[in-house]
Amino acid sequence: MSPRVAIILVSFNTAAATVEAVRTAKAATRTPHEIVVVDNGSHDGSPRALREAFDDISVIDAGGNLGFAAGVNLGVRHSTAPLVVLLNPDTEVLPGAIDALVAFAEAHPEAGVYGGRTLRPDGGVDPSSCWGEMTLWSLLCFATGLSTLCKRSRVFDPESLGRWQRDTVREVPVVTGCLLLTARATWEALGGMDERFFLYGEDADFSRRARSAGWRPVVVPDATIVHAVGGSTSSSGRKMCMVMAGKATVLHTAWSPARRALGLVLLQAGALLRARSATWGTVWRRRRDWRAGYPHAHAALFGGPPAASADGSHDRPPGPRVALATRPQE
Prior knowledge:
Residues 7-126 form the Glycosyltransferase 2-like domain. The structure is a single chain. By secondary structure, the chain is an alpha/beta fold. The chain folds into 2 domains: 5-227, Spore Coat Polysaccharide Biosynthesis Protein SpsA, Chain A; 236-301, no CATH class. Helices cover 39% and strands 17% of the residues. It contains 13 helices and 12 strands. It has helices at 15-28, 46-53, 68-77, 97-107, 136-144, 146-149, 184-190, 202-212, 236-254, 257-273, 278-285, 287-290, 296-302, and strands at residues 5-11, 33-39, 58-61, 83-87, 91-93, 113-119, 125-126, 130-131, 170-171, 174-175, 179-183, 218-227. The strands form 2 sheets. Strands 1, 2, 3, 4, 5, 6, 7, 9, 11 and 12 form a 10-stranded mixed beta sheet that branches. A two-stranded antiparallel ribbon has the order 8-10. A hairpin with a 5-residue loop joins strand 6 and strand 7.
């Protein structure tokens, strides 16, 4: 039977976790599916471990660390199913999760992009399956400390989407790449993930482009996974620098010059406000490395040239690299 959904994972030195993620995805999914794992140059034996554990999945050795955006694009190109699911390698798929996404997407094609509900290993809700949109107001709240002081406030921490437990169907600004389903036709019309992003921010950009094209990203609470969070990043300081680089890249690629300049000032002000902590002290000291966004930030944070994309190139020219897609009229 031909697969209806392609499950795409990108791994980097997470051999045991990725094997377990694939195992749970296979066991929990009744919908006919294919699984493609793109390994981003791991040195922990990930490709070998995956091939030894499974003889019915595709393992693509990227030959180096392409980053998340280029990695998933490569994985999608090596799949054939009409629906595509992005799944983090540090996750456990609970029974019926992907089936629920598929069923909801087929019943509600107008949404275009679909996310789920993530739990922490202790069973608590992990809000990172979706986020609010980054705005000047949300950045002002970050810069002044209001988003930390009033954590989970819909007014002063708007990107958190308040205290909503991700337990109802809701339209959201950003579905994260931890668990994201879309139709292949939508993926291709949007041009996939923007490979200027290395890690963090690419899913916010993808959701923004989807909304600009008329789609309405949505969270499906019956699609529940457990997420260990941060399996491929270790240093908290460098990880937060990458998060900030992702945010800066969104500003550089999607905001007007005046709003971008103010947004970057607010991002740096927020880092300075928190700089007494070791993590944020690193972010503040390395602000010149991340504030230009990717691909500059990749070279600055990791050393060497910018990461090659899945087609072997490096820097992409500024501006949109994809044609605008438009959802069908209802």
